[in-house]
Structures are given as structure tokens and as C-alpha cells.
Amino acid sequence: MQPEAAAPVAPAKPRKPDWLRVKLPVGPAYANVRRLVDEHKLHTICESGNCPNMGECWGAGTATFMILGNVCTRSCSFCAVATGRPTEYDTDEPRRVAEAIQLMGVKHAVITSVNRDELKDRGASIWYETVVRVKELSPSTTIETLIPDVKANWAALDTMIAGGQEVVSHNMETVGSLYRLVRPQAKYDRSLEQIRRTKEAGKRTKSGIMLGLGETKEEMYRAMDDLVANGLDILTLGQYLQPTKRHLEVAEFIHPDLFAHYREEGLARGLKYVESGPLVRSSYHAERHVNVPI
């Protein structure tokens, strides 16, 4: 009688290393930002995206505001923001965001949004008015807008980036070979074109990529070359962290030394500024990116 074959053993999941541990958000400055966000009924990607730097950034009196609601029409497999059919479209939101930024005394504001594919203009009019209102109430405040994929609606893109912001960011999120897995409703080449068109409009361009999803070094080098060829100025590189069990698992925790290597590679390949580290997110140290020459 043949002995039964042993059941295959599933590979162990990588354990979160010490360099990814962060402090819980505390302190009066953090509490004040939370109070203002709640009072003005604002959404922040800090909360919706479970950002590991929320304590540090909010403790410094800054936040990344998310306009156009907190329900996204996309179902990206890495993102903690709720997916569904949005019902919120608040034409008073630009005023509330601008007033909150003024009350906080924010020197550099980051504004982002969910995808609103169901809207004909992708929400571009709200984008434009939000930037204009912030500039009216806080003329010394610099602004970065982290805009979604407009699905080749280039008229919407033109409106989104015309409000006077200093930095326009659009995240690639991953390398080309992983797009179907990570961003199933997006296209690698289309996102590159969006960055190229933004640069051609005279804007300071920025993008971000998550590491640890299964990309290779060669794919990362190719992505950086593609971004340089399409006019990117600033690149952020950070570790992907699985937000819930329903989302993609981490394939690998990238060592800080490799992040440092990618920073040097990016600069050598023509990028003007690279923010690279395990806890780096799109808006981390964003105030430094305003001074990058166009």
C-alpha cells in the first residue's frame, strides 16, 4: 500500500519588517486637524487610504484632502477606498475645502479625489473651482493636485490643471506588466500620455509607484525610463502595504537599501527629484517638491 502523499505546504507570507512600524497619531496638532476635518465634513485620503504617515503629517498640521466624495468608480486591487456608484456631488465643496485650508494655516496643500468615471467631465469643474477658491482665500499657499485617470478625456484634463496649482501629480502605481492585476480599469500607456500632456501644458509633473507587488528591477528601470521620456519631473517610491485581506497580498517587503538604489537610478536616468523609502506615499514631504525646477 502506497503512503499518502503529503499535502503541499503553502509558502509563508512575508512578515512585516521593523522598518515599517509607525507611531500612532497623537498630540494637540493632530487633534486640531481631525476636529477641522470633521467640522467641515471633509474627506481625507489619509483616513480613506489608511496612510501610515497620518500621524506625522497631521501632527505637523497638514492633510491631503479628497474631493468628490469617498466612493470610487474604480476597483483597483490595492486601494482601501470604497468602490461603488457615487451619489455625492457637492458643488459647495470647493468653498469648504478652501475655508478649512485657510483655518489650518496650511502652507502647502495636497488635493486628490476618487475616480468619477460616471461624470461627463470626470469632476473637472469641481477640481478647477477648488484650486481657484484655495488660491483666493490663501494666496500664499502652494498646491499639489493628485488627479485621477481621465480615461483620455483630455478636455477634462485641461480644466483640472488650469486652476493655478504648482504641482500636478498622477500616479502610475506599478510597472506595466502588473497593470491588469493592480489597476484593471486603467492603461499604462494612457497614464503615461496623461503625464506627457500635463508636462506639455507647462506644469511641474509628479507620479508615484508602489514596490513589493512582484515587479523586477528591470521593470522598474523601464518604468523610470518611460516616465522620463514622457516628461516626469518628480517620482515617489514606497512600499505597498495590504490594506485588508480582500486586497492584493504583499509579494515582497523591499529593503531600505534597494529604495536608496532606486533613488540614485532614477536621478541618473533623468528624473529631477526622487522621494524613495518604505513609508513614502504620494504626498509625503510634498512641500519640498514645489521647488523642483520645471
From TrEMBL:
GO biological process: protein lipoylation
Record: residues binding [4Fe-4S] cluster 2: 72, 76, 79
UniProt GO cellular component terms: cytoplasm
Source organism, top-level taxon: Bacteria
Entries under InterPro entries matching the protein: Aldolase_TIM, Elp3/MiaA/NifB-like_rSAM, Lipoyl_synth, rSAM, rSAM_sf
Cofactor annotation: [4Fe-4S] cluster
EC number: 2.8.1.8
Keywords (A to Z) from UniProt: 4Fe-4S, Cytoplasm, Iron, Iron-sulfur, Metal-binding, S-adenosyl-L-methionine, Transferase
Subcellular locations according to the entry: Cytoplasm
Metabolic or biological pathway, per its Swiss-Prot or TrEMBL entry: Protein modification; protein lipoylation via endogenous pathway; protein N(6)-(lipoyl)lysine from octanoyl-[acyl-carrier-protein]: step 2/2
UniProt keyword Zinc-finger present: no
UniProt entry tagged with the keyword Transmembrane: no
GO molecular function, one term: 4 iron, 4 sulfur cluster binding
Reactions catalysed: [[Fe-S] cluster scaffold protein carrying a second [4Fe-4S](2+) cluster] + N(6)-octanoyl-L-lysyl-[protein] + 2 oxidized [2Fe-2S]-[ferredoxin] + 2 S-adenosyl-L-methionine + 4 H(+) = [[Fe-S] cluster scaffold protein] + N(6)-[(R)-dihydrolipoyl]-L-lysyl-[protein] + 4 Fe(3+) + 2 hydrogen sulfide + 2 5'-deoxyadenosine + 2 L-methionine + 2 reduced [2Fe-2S]-[ferredoxin]
NCBIfam families cross-referenced by the UniProt entry: lipA, PRK05481.1, PRK12928.1
Family: Belongs to the radical SAM superfamily. Lipoyl synthase family.
Protein name (database record): Lipoyl synthase
